[in-house]
Design brief:
This protein is mainly β. Helices cover 11% and strands 54% of the residues. It is built from 3 helices and 11 strands. A 6-stranded antiparallel sheet has the order 6-7-8-9-10-11. Strands 1, 2, 3, 4 and 5 form a 5-stranded antiparallel sheet that branches. The longest helix has 10 residues, at 73-82. It is globular and about 60 Å long.
């Protein structure tokens, strides 16, 4: 069987509180949040709504509506996923900050930095390789464009391989990510049961991922 999943999201984040350089509280409004599975479109309950998010001292995330009521489980799942980085350092920015990189130079990112860029709760496996190669500096936009190569591997119970390539645009003055786009093939094999009841499921497909951010 074959299946296609498409997700498209646009959101606006307004910073409300900063502590020691980290944004711990913000408002987020979802102007678009679409999900389409094999041609069947659905609109999650966050569209057109604004939520107040706060990263607590115990690293938990509180999500409330603007009237002070708590978000529903479905709302919380979507908002917490997209606001996962709130109140946490930016590993990629910390890795690049202060570095002088020449065009053509290859940077090998630590696994934890690569995992943070993909999202720590990703189902795409563990990052085995994450390299950045500086291709050019776009002076008019104030960004450095890197070529990206990522390889991930599955867990002990799942054999998985993902290899994607693309580009990453980073602001030279702040190291914030402006654009990120990768695509490539993936394959996975999962075995359930034991001995005579063992069953292996094979999955193959293609991943396309892109994001863009504007800062005011």
């Amino acid at each position: 069987s074959s299946s296609q999943l498409v997700r498209n999201q646009q959101r606006t984040v307004v910073v409300e509180e900063v502590v020691e350089g980290l944004t711990i509280a913000a408002r987020v409004r979802y102007s678009k949040c679409e999900r389409n599975v094999d041609g069947q479109a659905s609109q999650p309950p966050v569209v057109g709504k604004t939520y107040v998010c706060r990263r607590n001292d115990d690293d938990s995330l509180t999500v409330t509506r603007t009237d002070g009521t708590f978000a529903s489980p479905d709302e919380f799942r979507i908002v917490s996923e997209s606001m996962e980085s709130l109140g946490r350092p930016n590993p990629l920015a910390e890795f690049l900050a202060g570095k002088t990189v020449a065009v053509g130079e290859v940077l090998e990112l630590p696994h934890d930095v690569g995992a943070a860029l993909l999202g720590s709760k990703t189902s795409l496996g563990h990052v085995a390789k994450f390299t950045l190669t500086l291709r050019e500096v776009l002076e008019t936009e104030g960004v450095a464009r890197f070529a990206v190569e990522i390889e991930t591997e599955g867990s002990e119970k799942t054999q998985m391989r993902l290899i994607v390539n693309g580009h990453l645009d980073v602001e030279t003055s702040t190291c914030r990510t402006r654009r990120f786009a990768v695509s490539g093939p993936l394959g996975m094999a999962t075995t359930t049961g034991t001995y005579s009841t063992a069953k292996t499921t094979y999955v193959r497909g293609k991943l396309n991922l892109s994001m863009a951010a504007e800062y005011n």
